[in-house]
Amino acid sequence: MLQEQDLGHWRRTHYSSEISPSIGDSEVVVMGWVASVRDHGNIQFIILKDMHGEVQITAKKGECSEPIFEMAKEVKEHSSIGVRGKVRPQEKAPNGAEVVPSEIRAFSIAKKAAPFMMQGKTSTVGIDTRLDLRAVDLRRNYLGAIFRIRQTVLNSVREFLARQKFIEVNTPKMIATATEGGAALFPIFYYDREAFLAQSPQLYKEQLTMAFESVFEVGPIFRAEPSRTNRHLSEAISIDVERAFVDYNDVMSLLERMIVNIIETIKERNADDLKFLESQLPAVELPFPKYTYSDLIDKLQEAGERIQWGDDISPQVMKSLQDDRLNSFYFIIDWPTSTKPFYVKPGTADGGRVCESFDLMYGALEMSSGSTRINRKDQLVERMSKQGLKPDAFDYHLRVFDYGVPPHAGFGLGLERLMMALTKIENIRDATLYPRDIDRLAP
Amino acid sequence: MLQEQDLGHWRRTHYSSEISPSIGDSEVVVMGWVASVRDHGNIQFIILKDMHGEVQITAKKGECSEPIFEMAKEVKEHSSIGVRGKVRPQEKAPNGAEVVPSEIRAFSIAKKAAPFMMQGKTSTVGIDTRLDLRAVDLRRNYLGAIFRIRQTVLNSVREFLARQKFIEVNTPKMIATATEGGAALFPIFYYDREAFLAQSPQLYKEQLTMAFESVFEVGPIFRAEPSRTNRHLSEAISIDVERAFVDYNDVMSLLERMIVNIIETIKERNADDLKFLESQLPAVELPFPKYTYSDLIDKLQEAGERIQWGDDISPQVMKSLQDDRLNSFYFIIDWPTSTKPFYVKPGTADGGRVCESFDLMYGALEMSSGSTRINRKDQLVERMSKQGLKPDAFDYHLRVFDYGVPPHAGFGLGLERLMMALTKIENIRDATLYPRDIDRLAP
């Protein structure tokens, strides 16, 4: 009878991907979870899945011992097991080989059937059912492909920025002062004081250009947005980049090259995952199209939209423009100064009516915001006051500007939104392992 | 007169490290901050520092134009400037060359002198003065070396774990339930509910072994410890590793090999920084020494310490053992089950009195804690109850154990403490950019 046993001295000798006819006559030990079982009476097939793929275990009455055959019949999907046995060529099995078991050890027997199907791209149940049992949901092939691609995105970003001489930093997530006004912040009890969770590493990464010139951070950001949409999370991963002695044009160029590099790297390293997803990566060409904010407003007005210069441009509104180039990546540049945070540098023309800023869009989805930053204290104080912020609250930040903060520019790029653009994920929650939103704080 | 100007179309053509006699007669543009100025009357030396090193600017009366010479005289330390000029061989200058300025542009003029010296390993002021102006403090050569080494540590960890087929994950920092009891947690207002900041990714990384087998995370952890010591932070970076189908011996082996790999990588990539620090990396040999908890208690009792089996072993107490091998990295293994969290797997001998656990120490400093984990629901529930935790509060975690959680083991390694061991930093605050503790929430 199949009973749960400890790992003991059992160790895997081969990953599933290594099981092939060339192994010959030596015994192997494979381990993983049971992706499926097929009972053909006198023959029992178990598909065992590990991090590298699948291996077929074939228990045939008369061929393996009676106790082992009986155990094989009892194996249930999702259980974690180890199998000792010999490898035999089998054309129909993954890698052209199967394992004939001489021993089966059940490390953990599944007590229930999963409430959703594990194969296929689409799920048969709603996302909340899946998220309530996320660790099991993540065993689905679809999410495996998504998170392997996510890994490539992060590796590619780090490799690209290292070549550009950036240093990776970590800035504090518990902060005393709201960076961009007080909205959408999560308050914390910090010992005997009030504090907040950081919405972005903005002011820290700017300061760090003083000492390190080119810095980036990959870390969590926290936004208490009470929205229920398919593209907002309360906790997300932001790729934040900041560089000294450059302006917004330079960092736009950096950003678009970074994205092209990400796409090329995924093509190289995730061919199988892309095939499984039946998904084309976005077609990109350098440079990405650039639209000034003012031109877009004109076009939108021509298209009959009731929008005024100074309004935000919403995703819905963008859809009314019939322009194929707006289906992929493009920049909207030179936003009204009044629409952007205090640290964004106003342009020199026209009394600073527009600022040196950009949003990177993918279709109607905002990916990234960036700008040239103000690097002088008096200008910062002036912009803060205009936006109704109290400079006193930013004393620790402002004092740094007495010591020669270099000109600098940067951007923040939302990892989950980028994943949506790259892999056509419909709900941003599937681009993160354990999503957080106004309704969901668990698991 | 020297006046602040925008970056405009100025761009750096060369980093300081690229300024050498071989450049020849073409003009260069260098940028950075002014590390020092020396006024010799008719000759003015400016040491300009960028992310790659230093370059000497030499303005000589009669050789450069009168306005430029006057500007060079006005340049103040810490200001951010750009210099256009020609390169000339100069034996005494960094890289054997200096720049003769034809144009100087001040992007940001320092208004104050820094309250500490920038050169040298030790600072002339207390750490709080430095931390209050951390962005400027980070320009010190000493901290530059520390954070370049930190970068190597993180790169080395990622490269090492990628070779071992680990996937990097990010788990939520806002959680509903205290992982290891309710102590030392920061509470959050999560919309209309109470939530907490995660003390560790423990339960998430364990769950993720179901789908991904081998996972790691590099991310912030939050501990509301009201301690004022040189080795505690309220927010730190943890390197968390978890792997399926292995036990604590396997992950101890992984951890010690990872640390040896880190040390080798620093030797390769940070030779200059090590030279500047005049610091020897720890001498290590595989395997690291292992002491069982019970043996150490015996030794401590022999050494006259009043310590009982079941007590924690404090850093102070460890110092009373005269054993050279205790000055570097070593493991304390097989701790009393009662001293470890509920998810740690009790051993099979002796009714589970000790558990499959380890601490990695460096001298008296704890670096890492790890263990084999329980992978069965009934055992988890039993251990929770024994520790006074309510299994109901862990419903979202426990339900996963109905679906075949594999045997697994892992550890958490404190990045800042590891940096202390590697570079002999005296105060853990200098191993992090912007430290957080009970007294400090800013900058």
Automatic annotation (TrEMBL), chains A, B:
GO terms for cellular component: aminoacyl-tRNA synthetase multienzyme complex; cytosol. Its cofactor is Mg(2+). Mg(2+) 3 binds at E366. The gene is aspS1. Aspartyl-tRNA synthetase with relaxed tRNA specificity since it is able to aspartylate not only its cognate tRNA(Asp) but also tRNA(Asn). Reaction proceeds in two steps: L-aspartate is first activated by ATP to form Asp-AMP and then transferred to the acceptor end of tRNA(Asp/Asn). Transmembrane segments: none annotated. It catalyses: tRNA(Asx) + L-aspartate + ATP = L-aspartyl-tRNA(Asx) + AMP + diphosphate. The keyword Magnesium applies. Pfam families: tRNA-synt_2, tRNA_anti-codon. Homodimer. Keywords: Aminoacyl-tRNA synthetase, ATP-binding, Cytoplasm, Ligase, Magnesium, Metal-binding, Nucleotide-binding, Protein biosynthesis. This is Aspartate--tRNA(Asp/Asn) ligase. It comes from Nitrososphaera gargensis (strain Ga9.2). Its EC number is 6.1.1.23. The keyword ATP-binding applies. It comes from the Archaea. L-aspartate binds at E180, R223, S369, R373. GO terms for molecular function: aspartate-tRNA ligase activity; aspartate-tRNA(Asn) ligase activity; ATP binding; magnesium ion binding; RNA binding.
